[in-house]
Amino acid sequence: MALEFHMDFMFITVTTMIKRIFRGVLFTAVLAAGVQFVHAQGVATQSLTLQVQPVTKIAVSGNPNALIITDAVAGSDLTSVSDNSTSYSITTNTDNMKIVASINAAMPAGTRLMLQLGSNRGTSLGSMDISNALSPVDLVTGIGKGSDQNQTISYVFGANADIPSIPSDSRVITLTLSN
Amino acid sequence: MNSLFRSIIAGGLILLGGTSVMAQESSRAAQVVSFAVHRVDAFSLQDRLVQKETATNSPTMKITVHVSDESLKSDTFIPAGNAHMDLALVRSRESDITFKSKSLLLTITD
Fold first, then answer.
1. How many CB pairs under 8 A join A and B?
2. CB within 8 Å: A111 and B43
3. CB atoms within 10 A of CB A84
4. How far apart are CA B61 and CA A161, in angstroms?
5. Closest partner residue to B39 among A55, A63, A165, by Cβ?
6. B10-28: per-residue pLDDT in tens?
7. B46 and A CB contact within 8 Å
8. What's the ipTM?
9. What is the DSSP string of B50-67?
10. Do B26 and A55 touch (CB under 8 A)?
11. Residue A146 CA to chain centroid, in angstroms?
């Protein structure tokens, strides 16, 4: 009798343990599946398209000082005046660019307006006469990719000896960076 | 399905719009250049009046030669644009003056 009781007790105990183990395994499996599910939900992919387009920029530091002829050397033309107080900067990612200049109206007859641009990335053509540059005149050619900062803009204003006095006047000079 | 199609079209239009705004193959910058020419008179004497140079941008200028001999005093007017040519005449006349007089005072006035 005592043995049967003991066997029954052991049977119940083993059964209970198996059930517990089964529940534990089941719980772990469900938990793992849940984690897997949550983990699967945290993954996302994107297709990223990258592009650099042609970018060309030119800017000037401001307007030059007034160019006023006030003197002459006897026997020569009126003494030219110059201004180097302004500069330009460029950025381009295109090769073989150039800078051209144009004027909004021709200078008075007998006067000359010369313009020169410095350049580290291209070839400066030197001091160019833009007195009648209603059509653009090349100033810097062969500009390569990159940036060029604070390059000097030089103006020279000259006049023949027989030019009468001219009251203050102005012109708009446009610098264009293009290919 | 319609919603997806609309989204694709909208995305395409935005991409095209962005392209036209961003692509910059030329750029411009402008400066205002102010200028003026003032009244300019310059005059110099060298080598006993044989070499004289002048520059003026006034419409009418006069070089006055004062000499000790009143009989040789003269004025010469220089119209604008012919300063050098007219000065040659002054130079030749003053050469004679120099030859004959001991003191000269030349001024350039209008």
1. 157
2. no
3. 14
4. 13
5. A165
6. 444 444 443 334 456 899 9
7. no
8. 0.72
9. TEEEEEE-SSEEEEEEEE
10. no
11. 10
Q: How far is the C-alpha of A42 from the C-alpha of A20, rounded, in Å? A: 33
**What pTM does this model have?**
0.62
A115 forms beta bridges with A128, A155
Residues of B in contact with A66 (CB under 8 A): 34-36
Distance in Å, alpha carbon of A20 to nearest chain B alpha carbon: 51
The most confident of the ranges A8-17, A33-42, B8-17, B25-34 is B25-34
Question: Does pLDDT of A175 surpass 70?
Answer: yes
| Chain B residue numbers touching A176 (CB-CB < 8 A) | 26-28
| Alpha carbon distance B110, B107 (integer Å) | 10
Q: Where are the domains of chain A?
A: 56-178
Shortest alpha-carbon distance between residue A14 and chain B (Å): 59
Q: Which fold has domain A56-178?
A: Immunoglobulin-like (2.60.40)
Q: Are B93 and B50 in contact (CB under 8 A)?
A: no
Work out the angle at residue B48's Cα, subtended by the Cα atoms of residues B45 and B53, and round it to the nearest 5 degrees: 30
At A94-148, the pLDDT tens digits run 999 999 999 999 999 999 999 999 999 999 999 999 999 999 999 999 999 999 9
| pLDDT confidence band for A39 (50 / 70 / 90) | low
